[in-house]
Amino acid sequence: MKDFSGQNLRGRDFKDQDLAGADFSGADIRGARFTNANLRGANFTGAKAGLQKRWMIFQTVIAFVLSAFLNFVSIFLNVVIAAILLTPESIKLYTILPGLLVFFTLATVYFAIARQGLTTKAFGTIVLCIAVVGAAAGAGAVAVTGAVTGAVTGAVAGAGAGAVAGAGAVGVAVLTVLLSFYVAWRVSKEDEKFALARSFGIALSALGGTNFQGADLTGATFSGALLKNTNFADSRKQTTNLSHVCWKDAKKLNRAQVGDSILVARNVRDLLATGKGINQNFERANLRGANLTEAQLNGASLKRADLGDALLMGADLQYANLTEAQAIGTNFTGAHLTGACLEAWNLDHSTCLKDVDCQFIFLLEHPNSKGNRDRRPHDPDREFAPGDFEKLYDEAINIIEVLLKDGMKNGDAFRQALANLMQTHPEITPDSIQKIERKGDDALVTFALPDDLDIDKGTIERELHQSYQQEIKQLRSEVKELQALRAADAKEIALAALSQPLPSIFNQNTGSQTMTEQNNQPISATPGSFINTGEMNLSGSTINLGTISGAVTNTINQLQASNTPDASQLADLLTQLKSAIDSSDLKDDDQKDALEQVAAIATVAQSKQPDEKASVMRKAKKILDATIAALPSTATLVEACAKLLPTIAKLLGIPL
């Protein structure tokens, strides 16, 4: 560590140097340049920053000359214009009206600046005044005629006109000087209406002063340091990092150039320098990265304040209002939070609540319809034991709930999206899923995220939603493909079902009339013949469900009676699958599709062509998967497909 404590470092150049942890305590650093230097953890306690004497003299001269010049120009122009327009000759030529309008305009300009400052509102008032004066001048030129003009001219002309001109000129000069003093006074009070003038003055005063532009001052200490005429603005190369800087008891910090950092706001700057903010209003304040260690903030309003990455170790936040405060990465170690309102505050695993002192909190800023503010613990006679508050919020920090639209209807997409998330983030396992709740057709998934997960909840939710939507699109694409396959294969499947002996197909007890009963005539046909009974056609669109079920049973029986390897076991598995389809909640059309796939598998199982087996088996699995996609994951058919299809494929020698 470099030790510069107590040294005279006036005008020294430390630009771009690595001075992390260096000790500059009590040093004279007036005019020193630390541009883009690494000053992480550096100690500037009691250091004296600012201008060297030659720069101080130069700035004083420049400020005096600039002020005198601007005031002289302003007074000179106003007085000359007023005096010229109020001379007897001007009055004779133009009447007294132009002079009066000039005085009215000047009075309005001065009034607007005094009341509204150097703001756009004041500029608008001045523009409006000029417009009114222009209109009045035009009207006056027409209206002032004959006797009126003569009367006014005669009354004011001569010695009286000279007196008016002189008095007007003196009045304008006095008002201009008074306005200058007033503006300077309001700037010194940091009046927001004169922020533009203050910014210009601060920027000018920082010229030649101690320069920290672009420096990394993370964790540096300026306790008790004199910081007048110091520049903390960003450099052209990089931003100035003021995270976790200790400003306690820093002097003249309001005279430093602070760029667009959190020090811009007067109340924030005062809080950082004094550590006192009792009962003060910091609503929506930017306190990101602020060092508020042991700050007194009891009763303060920090509603919607940005406390991200701030240090609040040991801070007194009793009865403070932290409603909707941003506390991501905030360190509350040892802070006092008894009675604080924590309604909808935002925190995550990076928020540190170690050793927080808290007996109770409120989760509502305003009383509800029952007159209470949702106290925790609920029992008004009970308080948190040491460590209870931390445990309560540690659990809340690690819990994330994600609602997936139509998640119960799109079961396959839902399950695959979860699998994708776990593959992307191995730290998330099936054990991380606390519960899955049905919300109508939607699915509400609750995760317990691991402490060491290096991403926030928003990223997890976004990734899960994106994966879910992609899976839905993929599923829809596959369904369209399968629908095309079904249409192309409908005739083939219908003919395969009808290739069995007719008596075994049409005399099944299906709950409807048999073909003999329907036609009242005996039917005879050879195997493979097609009979148009009115129950089916070549497209297969009106095949009777009972007829197909009977045909599938017959096909399975033929498989069992064949010499196919593992025929008996295959027939048993297909029978189980058929029974699950028969008892399912599928629509008739979907049930027909599913049964047709069982028949196709039973038929191709007797083939000696491996490629044919593989093609039919994979096509059947695709169609079955799409058919059961709308069923709950706990449905008997879904479980049957998951269990039986891989075994059937294995017996057929087909990898799925």
Describe the protein's architecture and organization.
With 656 residues, the chain is mainly α. The chain is 46% helix and 4% strand. It contains 18 helices and 5 strands. Strand 4 and strand 5 form a beta hairpin. It is elongated, with a radius of gyration of 43 Å.
Radius of gyration: 43 Å
Low-confidence stretches: 140-161, 493-498, 500-542
Across the major sheet, the strand order is: 3-5-4
Helix content: 40-55%
Shape: elongated
The topology string of helices and strands comes to HHHHHHHHEEHEHEEHHHHHHHH
Count of DSSP E strands?
A: 5
SSE topology sketch:
Elements: H1 53-85, H2 88-94, H3 97-116, H4 120-143, H5 146-156, H6 159-188, H7 195-205, H8 266-274, E1 361-362, E2 375-376, H9 388-397, E3 399-404, H10 411-424, E4 433-439, E5 442-448, H11 457-497, H12 502-506, H13 515-519, H14 545-561, H15 567-582, H16 588-604, H17 610-627, H18 636-651
Antiparallel strand pairs: 1-2, 3-5, 4-5
Helix pairs in contact: 1-3, 1-6, 3-4, 3-6, 10-11, 11-16, 11-17, 14-15, 14-16, 15-16, 15-18, 16-17
